[in-house]
Amino acid sequence: MSSIASYIDDNAQTIRLLKPDGDAKWSPGKDIGDDDAFAHRNRLSSAADWIVASLSQKKRLDLVCLGVSDALCRWMTAPSTEPNVVAAVARGKGEEWGSVAAIGTTEPLTAPHRKSHQRTTAVHGAESHFPAISIHDASYRVLLDELDTRGIRVGSVLTIWHAMCRAWDESLPTERAMEDLGKGSDNGNTQAAASSPITAILITTEDNAVVWAWSKGRRLLTGGRNFVALSNTSDSIETVGPSIPDYSSACGRIALDWLTWSAQLGQSPERLIIVSPDASEIAKQCARLWPTARQRQIPEIDPIAATLNQLITADPIKPESDARTCVASLTNRPSKAHRRLNQWAGVLLLAVALTIAGLGWQFRKQSSVYNEQEQAIATNIAAKLTPIDQRMARDPRPKRALENKINELAAGSEGFVEPDLPLPILSELLRVGAALEDTEDVKIERLEITETRSVLRLSIPDTVTGEQIIENLRTSTGSIRWIESNTGIQTGRLVLNGAWTLEGDRL
Q1: Do residues 506 and 418 touch, judged by C-beta distance below 8 A?
Q2: CA 160/CA 154 separation, integer angstroms
């Protein structure tokens, strides 16, 4: 085991460091009094100094495991599983101080929220129901900041609940085992994890408590912590004998919690894994209260150390963003590396700004050259226009003034005006002759075709002949529309008036 893990509990009052060469423990010194307003902060600073000294040359803490004395798993109802929404709902239900209330971190024990670029219409009144973990993490945040200030990089931050699920749940192979199988493995398969049975894991701690967690596919589903009462083996009140843990009452409370969570989740544990020096005694109580689950006993004198060592052996420690495998907000907390990245981003922005300033200076210098060229061109144009017209030479827009002058001279000159085309009088005469060609005893008394007036008066033998002439003129193509006069066809006479139908240029 080359990785280094740390266990922090009891508001950062108990710190253990698990290294390849052994286990070290830190407790606050007595030189810092509680009457000091900054006593707790000074204790955290001393703890950070101890961790740095214990790590010696290595500047990385691969795993930080938090105790659950200040943590709670609860059932929540919120409009969404988005972390900010869950935190706002938790703050509104648990505190009345608004956004300044320091209730710690609340994260949903669900699949990570995926932001979508597409807008979705929310159903009015629709809410999600899910388990969530709440941690009073102010001390842990301060300690992580102290480590970051001293140049210690923290890999992953999780609770002992997460560690129990990832270390002892055997429903899925570990990541290292799947790596040995090759790239064709389904390590981390969401469907496989979702179809895994629920495994309940119990461990005991040094402060006489039983910590339990439900795991589904090696991911935390919910967890809890119950104290164990101690009973004296001596019958005499005066004689003080060794204290024996009474697991019957603790397991009874645990069974009640499990029944509550089973009603909420609609599932219950199918397997029990008990890691404790008293694993057999706890197994008897669990068999009495939860007889349907298969059991596995793992006798360990130090369950915390055994869990962390098992976890480091089973999984590569890497930062994640899933609240079911780690405390995502603390794992992805901004560190010195992020600040250094922001500083480099600021330096790059400053370099870009200086580059833009340099380009601006170059453009301004070039604009001065263009202004000088413009002045020289304007002077040259004015010198050439002065002999022609003084006002035109002083005009700020000489090109337009010159065009206006040319147009003025062109308008004042008398140029050749092409005459109108003659009217097709000959064509109309031939058309009238064609209309009279097939008639007999018809005499032309008057035929007048001018620009303004056209008259055709005929002497006809009968009315049929007159109608034939009118029909011939109407069906023939020409430039005059012949219309019968108001007098009609009189006996022996036909009078037609014509009007030119030409438009535009004459043809």
Answers
A1: no
A2: 17
Residues sharing a CB contact under 8 Å with residue 317, sequence separation 6 or more, in sequence order: 3, 62, 63, 155, 156
Would you give the DSSP letter of residue 213? E
Tokens of 252: 């009874």
Quickly count: other Cβ atoms within 10 Å of residue 167's Cβ.
25
Supply the mean pLDDT for the chain: 81
* 200 membership: H or E segment, kind and range: strand 198-205
Give every CB contact of residue 215 below 8 A, 6+ residues apart in sequence: 164, 165, 168, 169, 171, 198, 199, 200, 201, 221
Fill in the amino acid letter for 233.
T
- Is residue 252 classed as helix, strand or coil in its secondary structure? helix
Q: Answer positive or negative: Cα dihedral of 245, 287, 211, 72.
A: negative
> Which pLDDT belongs to residue 408?
78
Tokens representing residue 466 in the block:
């007159």
Write down how long the chain is. 507
Strands (DSSP E) contained in 5-127 are 5-9, 14-19, 22-26, 60-66, 71-78, 105-108
Count the alpha carbons within 13 Å of 499 in the hemisphere toward its beta carbon.
5
> Alpha helices, DSSP H only, in 67-220?
83-94, 138-149, 160-168, 175-181, 190-194
Residue 504: exposure state from Cβ atoms within 10 A (0-12, 13-18, ≥19) = exposed
pLDDT in tens, 4-27: 889 998 777 889 998 877 888 888
Residue 261 and residue 271: Cα distance in Å, rounded?
A: 16
Output the pLDDT for position 319: 67
What pLDDT is recorded for position 81?
Answer: 82
Residue 249: how many other CB atoms lie within 10 Å: 14
Residue 449 CA to residue 457 CA, distance in Å, equals 12
CB proximity list for 290: less than 8 A, separation 6 or greater: 200, 255, 258, 269, 272
Q: Which residue is it, tokens 């001393």?
A: 46
**CA–CA distance, 243 with 231 (Å, rounded to integer):** 5
